[in-house]
Known about the structure:
The protein is an alpha/beta fold and about 600 residues long. The chain is built from 20 helices and 17 strands. The radius of gyration is 26 Å and the shape is globular. The chain has helices at about 15-30, 35-45, 115-125, 140-150, 165-175, 180-185, 190-195, 200-205, 235-240, 250-260, 290, 325-340, 350-360, 430-440, 445-450, 500-505, 515-525, 545-570, 580-590, 595-609, and strands spanning about 5, 65-70, 85, 95-100, 125-130, 155-160, 220, 230-235, 275, 310-315, 315-320, 365-370, 395, 420-425, 460, 475-480, 495-500. InterPro entries: Bact_solute-bd_prot1, SBP. It comes from Thermasporomyces composti. This is Carbohydrate ABC transporter substrate-binding protein (CUT1 family).
Amino acid sequence: MAEEHHGTSKDPAVSGMSRRQFVTHALGIGLSAASTAAFLASCSGGGNPQGGSVPEDPLAQKGGPKSSPNNDPIYPEGYVGPVASHKQPLVKERVTLRIVVPQNTAVGDWKENLFTKWYEEITGVHIEWHVVAGEAGSSDAMTKVNAMIASGDLPDAFMNIDFSPAQQMLYGSQGLFVPLNDLIDEYCVEIKRIFEAYPDVKELVTANDGNIYTMPYVNDCFHCNCGIQRMWIYKPWLDELGLSMPTTLDEFEDVLTAFVNEDPNRNGKKDELPLMGHAHPGWPAPLSNFFMGSFMYNPGGPASNRPYPWLYLNDGKVDIVVNKPEWREGWRYQNRLYRKGLIAKESFTQDLEALQRIGNREGDNILGVVRAWDWGSFMTVDASDPDARWHGYVCVPTLKGPDGTAISSWNYYGKAGNNAGFVVTSACKYPGLAVQWADGLYELEAQLRLYYGDINEGWRWAKEGEKGINGKQALYKALITWPPEDGIWWGQLGLSFRSNEFRLSEAVDPKAPTFEQPLYEESKKYYEARQDQRLQLPLVYLTEEQASITSEIELAIENHVLQHEAKFTMGELDINDNAAWETYVDTLNRIGLENYLRAYQEAYDAKYS
Length: 609
């Protein structure tokens, strides 16, 4: 029987009371970063700063594992994205690495998952999975992880555990997280393709101290970059009434009025709902995310929709849009629509399920315009049914305001976040092997198996002449209606290198287009009117102190803005009353807006100035 190597160190420097004290003080009662640094540095010897020696790893293959080209795929002209290759196993004898992951319904049992078994077979690396309760990014998962760190029982790596940039820098500076810069240079192949294709991704995942502590999760999703503002209109009603797609706020108001008064569903009842949204807890769809584009650049919010809600760069200075005169004008317009009965009052209280019940209503359609991320937010989507109701909804472009302003909110930095994807800990005896294992997930066939399941069951390579979503030669074709069955894929976990070209190279049948193709076409309407990139606040690394300042203030600002959007729109507060508006703005200031903006300014300056 071949010897099995285990990757986790039992070095006392990474276990015992020191970790319990660290978490109790630093995370529990907010011990200063300086005090924590001094304490842990004495235990762990500090971090491995950028440019330091590469940790010894007798198992990792310098330059990456040996591989040969995979000639099965046909790459579209100008393709930039993951590349297919046949890689040799990473090790000659089975090696076990301990990796902590979140619970996920789509993955099921991580050990028995079909992709897990395939990946172990081709790498030779066995994973001892430690699953923490709670979905990725949940507070439940982070609570379990913090307890694990407190106990000193560090795994070799964490994957899809949502360590914030502040936590990455703090844990990295104390030697709990291993800097990956030199390991990537020495042992990785696929991530270098990412950095070459997206130089900004490397910048985004590089902390203020110059170190990279996480392998990135890249998903350059074209339609995701404008999803927070999409407004959907039922085009058959426009056609029935002989109306054109509105291009201005006044024309939009006229269309809504016609929907109310002219019985577009032709059932003889005044049952049409002209405009509706939702206030789903944790993922609301504010009407202002669409309407403000007619008055100003609105980066959007709340935080569940866009990092750093409503913040932007005003001549290089971090500022917020929700206290500006143009913002007031946007709410004034929303109030005008509401007073005329053109916005359903449920928009500010109902959740997604309530909205979907209206969208899925049997019989006559009653829903005219919807503020939602996509069709699936307000009805069931059956991509195989060409006559399904969802096909009738198309996007309303950003409307021209009174002075001609029409600015779409485009997320230039949405392709990758700076929260953790894959982190190697100081307990790992084979850090080079760990990053090589993670790096292999970025390879093209691995990406397709991660997303669709087995080859020739969930997907296949495209044939010559098959066209992708963007009209170019296709790269692959899905053989299932996504998502796959549970237990055969990783539920969009693991690591991702889904470039824009990769996503758009999915083969489509013109007679039966997928969900992705029309979403791509509709989203192009917002791309044309996107804001200057210099207005968007890029991703920053907050220090522990800055994160402590901003977290509570951000939540208070979100609640204040969303509550007042409802109050001013529905007339509970008079948007035309200067005193009411000034009270709203003054309350923002009392919440701590000045300190909030200062913290982000300092973080921005530290990284980009």
